[in-house]
């Protein structure tokens, strides 16, 4: 088995609620609702972190930043991403590429995607490593009914140095 590269997949979803800011990929998006969750509930960044952790065989987001720990209440997910990238670096891994799809009926994500990419790259993923797409639920399911948002991500990492 070639242990120099690995892939991981991540998924996250949160319910939309009134009275909370909508943050995706570290970008605050103007909308009348935001995502419910213990941290900032940034489904995009959460899915990316789970993909990175999975690729490195390091468990999942909830294992590292449990929602039962008040230190992470309202946490900025970009700060958590930096911690995840530090864990990977500490074990000799670096992110090569992450690809994600946002699932949102509303608001339209297209205008915000370039800023999301820049924020995620600047959080430590590096230039040219992030791709984001968006799609709707076509009126079906919790996304299509506007009840929540979701994201799915895939990460490719490579070994920088031997353990």
Fraction of residues in β-strands: 25-35%
Quaternary structure? single chain
Q: Reading side by side through the largest sheet, how are the strands ordered?
A: 4-1-7-5-6
Number of helices: 5
- Morphology call: globular
Q: Order of helices and strands, N to C?
A: EEEEHHHEHEHE
Terminal Cα separation, in Å?
16 Å
Q: Describe the main β-sheet briefly.
A: 5 strands, mixed
Structural class: alpha+beta
How many distinct beta strands? 7
**Average pLDDT value?**
94
Rg over CA atoms, rounded to whole Å, is 15 Å
Share of helical residues? 25-40%
Show unreliable segments: none
Q: How are the SSEs ordered, and which strands pair?
A:
Elements: E1 5-18, E2 22-24, E3 27-29, E4 33-35, H1 43-55, H2 61-64, H3 77-90, E5 93-103, H4 113-125, E6 130-135, H5 141-144, E7 148-159
Parallel strand pairs: 5-6
Antiparallel strand pairs: 1-4, 1-7, 2-3, 5-7
